[in-house]
Amino acid sequence: RKEVEQDPGPFNVPEGATVAFNCTYSNSASQSFFWYRQDCRKEPKLLMSVYSSGNEDGRFTAQLNRASQYISLLIRDSKLSDSATYLCVVIRYGQNFVFGPGTRLSVLP
Amino acid sequence: DVKVTQSSRYLVKRTGEKVFLECVQDMDHENMFWYRQDPGLGLRLIYFSYDVKMKEKGDIPEGYSVSREKKERFSLILESASTNQTSMYLCASSLPRRGKYEQYFGPGTRLTVT
Q: Using one digit for the tens of pLDDT, what is the confidence trace for A27-60?
C-alpha cells in the first residue's frame, strides 16, 4: 500500500462547479499536511497547508481528519485556471516530504 | 523572488553514461532535495541534504549519488545511466524553520536514457 494515496482522476467539471478531492495516508505518525498544485509541464507549488481545525483560502477549503487519516480539498466556483494536478503532501518527520500521485482536475467552459 | 534553477530542461543520454544534473538555489536555504516524478507514482525522494557536505538517502537512492560542496548547489549523479532512469527529475529547496515547510521547486529536467 502506498503511503499517500489519491484518486488520479481526471475530474472533469464545468466552470462554477464545486469539486472535492480526498487523500488518505497510512503513517499515523505523520505530522504535517499540505496541498500542492502542479500545472501541466510545470513544477509543483504550494497551494495551502492543512490544519486539524480546517482552513480556508478564498475558494479553497482544506480539512484534516486524523482519526480516519485523510485530507480533503474543496474548490468552490471552479475557474478554468484551476485546471491542474493537485498533489497531497504529508511530512513524516523533519522535512521528509511524501507526495501523493496527484489528482488531475479539468475545468471545462 | 525565490528561484531554483536546474542545468537542463531536456537531456538525452545513452545507457552506461555518467550523468550530472545540477541544481542551484539563490534563497540561502539549508535543505535541498532531489525527486523523480513518474506517471502514476508521483514524486519520489531520491536524496536530500540538510547542509553542505551532508546527504541522506531518500526512498529510492539506488543507482544515484549526490554532491553538495556549496550551500547553493546540489548535484545528482547517475553513475551509469540505465533506461529505467528515464524520468522527470525535480530539485527543491526549503528552510528548516519550525512552521516553514514550503518546498520551492526547480523547473525540472526531463531525462531520456536510450
A: 888 888 999 999 998 999 999 989 888 899 999 9
Q: Which residues in chain B touch residue A34, judged by CB atoms under 8 angstroms apart? A: 101
Closest-CA residue to A47 (of B31, B90, B101): B101
Say if the Cβ atoms of B42 and A8 lie within 8 Å. no
C-alpha cell at A22: 480526498
Phi and psi (nearest 5°) for A80? -55, -35
Give B79's contacts (C-beta < 8 A, 6+ positions apart): B18, B63, B64, B65
Q: Are B106 and B6 in contact (CB under 8 A)?
A: yes
Q: For residue B47, with 0-12 CB atoms within 10 Å meaning exposed, 13-18 middle and 19 or more buried, which class applies? A: buried
Are the beta carbons of B31 and A96 separated by less than 8 Å?
no
For chain B, 114 residues long, give each residue's pLDDT as a single digit of tens.
668 999 999 999 999 999 999 999 998 888 999 999 998 888 999 999 999 999 999 999 999 999 999 999 999 999 999 999 999 999 999 876 656 678 899 999 999 999
- In terms of DSSP bridges, do strands B10-13 and B109-113 run parallel, antiparallel, or are they unpaired? parallel
